[in-house]
Amino acid sequence: MHTCQHQTVYQKDYAAPDYLVETVELSFDLDPDLTRVVSRLKIRSNHDRAGGVRPLVLDGEELTLVSLKLDGVELEPYRYQAGEGTLTVNDPPESFVLEVTTEISPKANTALSGLYASGPMLCTQCEAEGFRRITYFTDRPDVMAVYTVTLRADKSSCPVLLANGNLVEKGDLPDGRHFATWHDPFKKPSYLFAVVAGDLAHIPGSFTTMSGRQVNLEIYVEEKNRGKCDHALRSLIEAMRWDEEQFGREYDLDTYMVVAVDDFNMGAMENKGLNVFNSRYVLASPETATDDDYQAIEEVIGHEYFHNWTGNRITCRDWFQLSLKEGLTIFRDQEFSADMQSRPVKRIADVRLLRSSQFPEDAGPLAHPVRPDSYVEINNFYSMTVYHKGGEVIRMLQTLLGREAFRAGMDLYFERHDGQAVRVDEFVQAMADAGKRDLSQFMRWYNQSGTPVLTVSDDFEPASGVYTLTVTQSCPPTPGQPEKEPFHIPLAMGLLDRQGRELPLQLEGEKSPGATTRVLELRQETQSFRFTGVGSKPVPSLLRNFSAPVKLVYPYSEDDLTLLMTSDSDPFVRWEAGQVQAVQLIMGLVREIQAERAPAVPETFIRSFATLLTDKRQDRAFLAEALTLPTESYLAEQMEVIDPAAIREARELVRTTVGERLREELVAAREACAPKSPYHPDDGLAGCRRLKNLCLSYLMAPGSREAVGMAMEQFRGADNMTDSLGALATLAGCDCPERDEALEAFYRKWRDDRGVIDKWFSLQATSRLPQTLDRVLELLEHPDFDIRNPNRVRSLVGAFSQANQVRFHDAEGRGYRFLGDQILRLNGINPQIAARMLTPFSRWRRFDAGRQELMKKELERILAEPDLARDVYELAAKSL
Ligand code: 0A1
Ligand code: ZN
């Protein structure tokens, strides 16, 4: 087994920095092959020197040290040591100026952390610990400094030179070079530092803040993408306005810049005043972007903008506090999107994501608290748990406190901690103070991992009219946490009578009945709530709006679910009732298939599906959500031992039966959604398009020639990517001659558009056809496949292994072998991406013995690699 010694960092070992940096002056001689960086740091001691002078330890990786001066004098070699990842200066004075000159090679930087080349430009990514790959520095978020940056580069290849803050000077230099100097007046941690240089088109915009200041908005993209920035710019303006209206937060610099780059490990980065974005979250045109793409852009643009207050003005003391900025900012971007479109549909989408990606994480070997206690590589903790469960934790605070007190808590947090690097505790304390609540038990959401389970039972006493709900909470063991203390959980609920009417709720001891929704607060392992004045046994509507990230167990009958689905006032509960029915149905079919009996879809299901489909009153977007079956991976979570083939077969049987039995209704619903005007992303018809494409996919499930004809017609006639891709996706899953024809035509049309070609790769990787893995292996050799480009890797390797359960879990283990090979290949190129690709293997315990063995073998093969990156090592070792 592997012997490499990667250090674990523990939260309990946190110590304040020994030295603080007040100002940073950086100068870059930019060149893709060799860039020289001179850094002048004004440093001051931050420890009690009476007890001995501590050395100054700077972080640094992949740097060539050229010179080191203290107060202008070159340091003698005995005064410092350059070690593994550090540079130590012995016995430094109380305060001094350190001048460090280093050299780096952006072109050789395939990890995309630090300064790197992306296509024709140079850019940086410093979160979490990338700044140390640019120069030696105390690279930790609690060291905040004021930065002045001078960039020098060749003027013809790099006419645009950007850094954080305000441009203070620019001019020409000899030999065709030029320079620009930027100053950021706000103190910031090194992870928010950024520079960009290249030949970029500039799309200007402007925003007038609530106090009347004019802010220049600038989007920078490659010239060929100039026409694809409108939506990003519009979203930015909406986000700026929204943060003023909802949270009273105004932007603080004169310029806000967004740069789109093609090579990027994550979605985007909130560098102060100079966001760097994965180009897929900036670029959009109707022909090349789907409605989902448009929405994702709005969300990510919002997310990075909101970080300016929740992340930049107030940052994290250390990386264990990551959710302080990420959970809070996810919550803010979710609320922003909910206000921009349909709130219920947005909530449903967020819950789907949490359940399909965060719940499995929380139930497996990589489970960790929203605030982890330790890590080997912090990049592995930019996780669904830290982000999305963290967002749910903030939402629960709002539910417990109410909107008004929550807002007061936010105000207090900004007032107390602006300009500081703080912990989650400071945030929760501000909420506790503003809401006048004791939130000490609530803190367990940050410290305990695992998804709590609420088991609910009820009892109705007709004689007294008392209805009792009894709720028991439990939380399964997770790594390092065999036992859990009870959580403080908001359970929003209501009661319906048999006619579907909402009952005013009155708990025993209360004077009069109140609202029809209320938030019960769970604090103990078991708690009972007695409602009085109840005439007949009601149906409980539980976890309204998904008020807590928990699993709910209540023995609903088929009739209860139908009543909730048709009558509940809460859209989330209405949707959920349908999902529970669908899960029950499909899991029943899975059991039939496993027992080798002939499974059949009951008539009742087809009828209620038809009722929904023909419902003219409901919002189309909501209807599309309600008619979408639970994903294969969500269904897998419901099984003790996952059987990918049976799940696939059962789900497909439902889809095929619906497609056959409801052909006419589907055709009619699809036609009712046919476009009556040319596409526009903001035409309010995205829900209609989703429903239309969903109908097409049901019609295509039985694979009739007629349906293939409809798909081809839609594919050929589409004036927008949503419809084109909707049709192509169904064709990619169909074993018919039109499939290749359409895929080929699509490729020929879009071969020069990276974003669209990513879609082309993933459509093929997620096809459920039996030959998919062979096609994926072929695509690895395709001239457009590039293992160094994270989006391309995600669209082929990621899509196949994470979104094609049945083909990835091929019983012979060929899918596993493929993924193992790609992870080992990526390990030497981009460790962060390699580690991200590892997640499917972490679920190995959930499968049958044969698959377990095969997946374990791959994990062992990975761990046997002698030069395993910290990122990959940590996840592989923890998975085994
Ligand atoms: N803070 C960014 C996410 C991010 C994290 C790490 C990165 O590189 C390793 C890049 C971006 C956000 O939440 O948007
Ligand atoms: Zn973020």
From TrEMBL:
Its cofactor is Zn(2+). Keywords: Aminopeptidase, Hydrolase, Metal-binding, Metalloprotease, Protease, Zinc. InterPro entries: Aminopeptidase_N-like_N (IPR045357), Aminopeptidase_N-like_N_sf (IPR042097), PepN_Ig-like_sf (IPR038438), Peptidase_M1 (IPR001930), Peptidase_M1_dom (IPR014782), Peptidase_M1_pepN (IPR012779), Peptidase_M1_pepN_C (IPR024601), Peptidase_M1_pepN_C_sf (IPR037144). Residues 559-880 form the Peptidase M1 alanyl aminopeptidase C-terminal domain. Its EC number is 3.4.11.2. Residues 36-192 form the Aminopeptidase N-like N-terminal domain. It catalyses: Release of an N-terminal amino acid, Xaa-|-Yaa- from a peptide, amide or arylamide. Xaa is preferably Ala, but may be most amino acids including Pro (slow action). When a terminal hydrophobic residue is followed by a prolyl residue, the two may be released as an intact Xaa-Pro dipeptide. Residues 232-445 form the Peptidase M1 membrane alanine aminopeptidase domain. CDD domains: M1_APN (cd09600). One of its GO terms (molecular function) is metallopeptidase activity. The keyword Hydrolase applies. It is an enzyme of class 3 (hydrolase). Residues 450-554 form the Peptidase M1 alanyl aminopeptidase Ig-like fold domain. One of its GO terms (biological process) is proteolysis. NCBIfam families: pepN_proteo (TIGR02414). Belongs to the peptidase M1 family. Aminopeptidase N is involved in the degradation of intracellular peptides generated by protein breakdown during normal growth as well as in response to nutrient starvation. This is Aminopeptidase N. It comes from Citrifermentans bremense. The lineage of its organism: Bacteria, Pseudomonadati, Thermodesulfobacteriota, Desulfuromonadia, Geobacterales.
